[in-house]
Every structure is written in C-alpha cells, then in structure tokens.
Write a structure and sequence with these properties.
The structure is a homodimer.
Chain A: E1 8-21, E2 26-33, E3 42-43, E4 46-48, H1 55-67, E5 75-80, E6 89-101, E7 115-122, H2 133-148, H3 164-175, H4 181-191, E8 194-200, E9 210-214, H5 216-224
Parallel strand pairs in A: 1-6
Antiparallel strand pairs in A: 1-2, 1-4, 2-3, 2-7, 5-6, 8-9
The structure holds a DNA duplex.
Chain lengths: 231, 231
DNA sequence: TAATATAGTGTATAAAGTACACTAAGATAT
DNA sequence: ATATCTTAGTGTACTTTATACACTATATTA
C-alpha cells in the first residue's frame, strides 16, 4: 500500500460518523476515496484540519466538501491517536457524529477531488473501511446507542412527520431488540414532546396510522435539566 | 505575555483533570508552571505528545513526570481545538480525567523542569488558570458529575475503607446538594457493591461509624450491562 | 451520669417500569 | 356486500424504584 507518498510529521484530522434512517434501515454516510493511501476504498468522510480553523469548523467544512451536506449539528465523541493509524505519518483524528433524516431528495454531491462519490450504506454489513475507520464507526455507534437511552435523539433521524410505529422501528433497529408496543407508546407520549397531527398515512393497504411531529421546544426544555441524583 | 517564543505549526498535547477527595473537600491537581508561556501560573498538568507515543501513553507519562502519580486510570473526555488557544501556535489538546483517592501519604513530586510544583487545590475557588484550562476543568467537572449519576465512580475517590457518611458527603459535594440519609443508604446498599467490614471508626468523640469497602468485582458486573431501554 | 454529636433505622406513598391480548379501521379480493 | 388481511391503537394489574419524613442507639467528654 505504501507507494511513494509524502510523509508528514503531525497533523490533525476530522472524521464524521453520520447516521441516517430511511424508515426501515439505519445507514451511515461513506465515501469512496479517490486518493492514496486507500485509493478506491470506502471510508468515513474525513480530512485534515487547516491551520486557521477550529475543530468544529473543520468538521462542518469537510462534511460539506465531501458530501454536499450542510448545517448538520455534529458532536465530537472521541479522539483517536494511535501512532500507526495512518500510513503517511502521525495523524490524530477527532471523530464527530450526527444523526440526520434521510429525505430521498437530499442528493449527495462531493465538491472534492479526493472523493469519488458519497453514498449511504446500511450499518449492518459494513464493508471493510480505510484506516481505522471501522473502529471509529463502532465507537460512534455505541455512543449513539447509549445516548438514545437517555435523550430522544431518534427524532433527528426521522422525517418531519412520522408514525409511532416508525419511531418504534428506529429504536428497535438501534437497540437491536423488540420493544413492547403499548409500553413504548405510553413512554414516548408521556415525554410530552410529540405533537399529534391531523393527518394520516395515505396509500397504505391497511389502517392508516396517525402522523406525529416532534416539538423541539419542549424537547429542549425537558432534556436540559440535567440528570439528578434525587434527594 | 508573548516574549520571544518559539513558534510551531501544529502539535498535540494532553491535559489532565485529576479529581481527589480528602474526606470533606473535592480537589483537583494543579501545577505551577516553570516555563513560558504562563510561567508562574497555575495550570492543569499537561504537555506535548511525542511523535511515537499514543494519546493514552502520553497522558500516563505526562501525569507521572509532572506529578509523580502512576497507574492512574484516566479517561479521555474532550478535545479542545480553538485556533488561538495557545500563544505559540496551533495546539490541539486532548483532555483526560480521573478520580483518585487522596491518602495523605502520596506525595506529589515532579520530575520535570517545566513544573515548579504540583499540588492539590479545592475545586471551589479555583484560581485563574493558564491557557483555556479553566474551561477544560469545567467541562471535565460537568462530565464527572454526570457520570456519577449513572456509575458509582465515587468509590474511586474514597479511601479503601470508608463510612457511609463519607460516601454521602462526597456525593453531596459533587452534586452540590443535600441528600436524604436514609434514602441514600438504602440506594447504595441495594446496589450490592459494598462490603460491610468488621471495623469501626476510632478516635472520634461520638458514636463510631462502621467501615465499608467497595466490592470491585460486583461493581464491574453491575455496570457493564449497558443501560437498556426496557422492553 | 448528663450532655453532646453523629450513627443508624422503617414505613407509607408516589412514580415509573413491565407484562400481557384484544378491538378498530382501512384496503383488497371474491 | 362481505370476508379477509394487515397494521393501528388501546388498558389494567403488578412490580420495582424513588421519595418524604423523625426518632433511637452509641461512643465520648464534661
């Protein structure tokens, strides 16, 4: 793999683990690399941080350049600094993750020559990824899974309007287990962060489900009071 | 402040937020700097990562060199990468935290010329710190506070043998609120991770309390089953 | 032996989580 | 029109966990 590549002393990079949900499958955003090392491999969107930009800014810029996605709220989750993780030199990478909704219309379009294409891939049956990106993905996935148990981040993955069954499917996919329908609904509705809409599913060949949407204001209120230890 | 300092392009560093508890006060480990920039200022123990060491290794080494402490389990919690956070150039720092017990006997002793001295300082009334270390400390403190609500990390801060009242004091200091004695004891004992010892306090001028110790095996068992969403 | 200071204990109530199975409604085929 | 299919939608009893609250026990010292 190591051809006649430039060597560098030490650089920072960013890698992004972007989760998306299409209603039934949980996906992750990958790119196909157009540059050595790991040319033609699949990888997480990620690249070097510039001298004059903060980590958060770099994450936003790189995600845009590689995939065309903008205005995605990403959160840093871990920094990977093994000595040999990059064949060209010492690269320490700060990993970010985000959860976003997949509307069919959002086309991915790279404006970077480093990227052959960007695409969504189901998180099950991930192919081998470049560098240590498989490990980065796994760490990010576990972090996201843990977070969903104490913050209802699942809403960010769903379309604007969604049914309770879709919401439950998403939880089941992420947690990888079946949940009880009645208990799930009770719990979610009790949070008080769902608005029932005056609208039902159309074009389904069975009883149409009611659509809900997410009340972002109440969500913020509810989850900003930090967990307390009780009295 | 900026004298005729070396400039560097980009480097990684480590900073450590080490919490200690002496039975009544929660403290943090600080150093007094013996080197520009911020010579004579107080700061978190932290320095540059070498080319050939991983982040975790660097954290361990730097903590030892600066304070004499060894074999401390530290956990990475955030990476700070603002462009101007270091006056000499672009320094991205990976912050670690740990919670340890303060036995009087553990003397702090720096073997580094960069450090004038290392010492424990109460987390209340922290002095102004070098660089953005106040912010790093605050982020670490909030992380630790959150963690204590779902993992009994407090045991790592206490001496080998401790009384339930000491344990409760610690929780009250960290959470900054009073807890109910009976409920606290019930909850802690219910975890099943405490062993009651056949030994009581000595030299106190009131009824002596029973000592407990922490059953690390049961602890690990209990808190390795990840939080679940229920059924 | 009285005073003081902290250790140690129980019970009733409220809230949250869990287990579990049937009816309702729309679409489609006959 | 009616029977069939498929998913939506609902309630209740039980268990577990959290909360509120005040007195007795024991060691030390005056």
């Amino acid at each position: 793999m190591e051809t006649n590549l430039v060597k560098f002393d030490s650089v920072f990079s960013i890698d992004c683990v972007i989760f998306g949900f299409d209603g039934s499958e949980l996906k992750i955003l990958l790119i196909e690399r157009n540059e050595e090392p790991f040319k033609d491999w699949y990888a997480l969107p990620g690249y070097f941080v510039e001298q004059d930009e903060s980590l958060d800014d770099a994450a936003e810029r790189i995600l845009y350049e590689f995939t065309g996605l903008r205005d995605i709220y990403m959160e840093q989750f871990h920094t990977f600094g093994e000595v040999d993780r990059h064949p060209q030199g010492r690269v320490i990478t700060v990993a970010y993750y985000a959860t976003i909704r997949l509307n069919g219309q959002k086309d991915l379009e790279s404006v970077s020559p480093i990227v052959k294409k960007a695409f969504w891939h189901p998180v099950n049956k991930l192919p081998k990824l470049a560098f240590d990106h498989t490990r980065i993905f796994t760490t990010g996935f576990l972090r996201m899974r843990r977070k969903i148990t104490y913050q209802p981040i699942a809403f960010e993955l769903l379309p604007e309007k969604f049914t309770l069954t879709q919401l439950q499917n998403l939880y089941e996919v992420i947690l990888d287990k079946k949940l009880d329908k009645r208990n799930f609904r009770k719990k979610m509705l009790n949070y008080g962060i769902l608005k029932e809409l005056n609208e039902k599913q159309k074009g389904v060949s069975y009883r149409a489900a009611t659509y809900y949407k997410f009340d972002r204001r109440k969500y913020v209120k509810l989850f900003q009071k930090e967990l307390s230890f009780g009295k």
